[in-house]
Amino acid sequence: MTRRLISRDALTAALLALLTAAGLYLCGRMALPFLTPLVWATALAVIFAPMQQRLERMLGSANRAALASVFVIGLLVVAPAAFVGQQLAVQAMVGAARVEAEAASGQWRQRLAEQPLLARPAAAIEARIDLAQTVKLLTDRFGNAAGAMARGSAVQIIGLGLVFYLLFFLLRDRTMVLSAVRRLTPLGPRDMDTMLPRIDDCIHATVYGTLAVASVQGLLGGLMFWALGLPAPLLWGVVMMVLAIVPVLGAFVVWIPAALFLVVENRWAAALVLVLWGVLVVGTIDNLLRPMLVGARLKLHTVPAFIAIVGGLLVFGSAGLILGPVILSVTLALLDVWARNGNPLPAASPHPEPPPR
After folding, report:
1. What is the pTM for the complete model shown?
2. 128 occurs within a structural domain
């Protein structure tokens, strides 16, 4: 009899695995353009799941409850975002024009000359670069970027519509989605019961501990800029919020140069107020709010958290703010599964039987 090198069952299994891998690859390629809306819709669904459950009990219908939830979330997200975006564009253009005019007039040289502590460093910097030309170049690029953002507003509106479209179904069918995830995942029920809460905690910690705290810091910084009469307070408040999202960086990257600007204008009292506000209020609000909003949910050291957030933003764009920490948390959870369960693969027999003839 001839030796059968590959059995029919093994060939069928290999073909099935190949087709499954090809299908997953193609599905991933098709889903890739929708990654950002899908990630943010999932994050919102996780955050607002308790509200959806309460509305379901009140309205007696998952469909009506999901519609009401999407409407409420839209009011909380879209209305403020539209107002901030409109004001941000105006303040960005006005602020850029003011900075360019100040640099071209040369008045800043006279003001620096009146400040002995700043005159020498400023002269050394100006000897190496043409400050006025550099400022003009930066403002031109800033204006081009603002124009590109305005032209891309239609794309952003479509993306926002996709977020809420996906959010409706994720809220309404969340039980079915979780059941499908459990069924299709090779992990056992015990491991899934450990994995899913870690993902939930990671999303809550990222949204509340990162976005919410950074928004409060940006708001407080922008309010002080407005109170002191500094230009474009909304713009710089948003910039402070964005910088506060990234670990290691923070709002101080904005308010320290602003304090120096006030010193150059001989407004020492205002500069002192801004420094005290930045150190005592904006700088400490993170230590006050983060334990209240996050607690011990995100069990990540500063360095892995920094890599997850910044690396996620570089790889996945805005979706990486959520996706980076989630991927890291899931990976750590999988490593815990391996450490707890050992090698899940069956051990090879030391004396394999010869193939059938």
Report:
1. 0.70
2. yes
